[in-house]
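Closing statement on the fe (ii) ion sub-project.
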Amino acid sequence: MPLIKWRDSYSVGIEKFDKEHRHLVELINRMFVIVRDKDNITAVSDAVARLIDYTEFHFSSEEAAMKEAGFPNLAAHQQLHARLTQEISAFQQKIVAEESDVGPKFYRFLRDWLLGHILEEDKQYTQYMIATANR
Ligand SMILES: [Fe+2]
């Protein structure tokens, strides 16, 4: 399974969030390598915990910016964030319980989520911010 490669088309047009998204890509790739190499369970759960921490940080940073900009779909976006956080925690529990094959599934889930999140959902709020800032 290939690692995620950052592409220019992933840019949401706001440097701060591009930077955070790049860091998420890095953490997801790092976690995948650890899972793929069947590193010990402590290394795996550490990598997942770091990813969860950073995801929470990133979500709060996005939500604060959306709030400040008066983004009308803030509540819906917050719900997406809450659902994703729940899903990641569920995977974390399965990984800790050492259920077989969770790793690759988790990686695929994260990859699809991240790319969908950046390309569709995040572009909505960043486009709104860019448009209102230039008004
Ligand atoms: Fe994001």
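The mean pLDDT is 89. With this model delivered, the sub-project is considered complete and its resources will be redirected to Aim 3.
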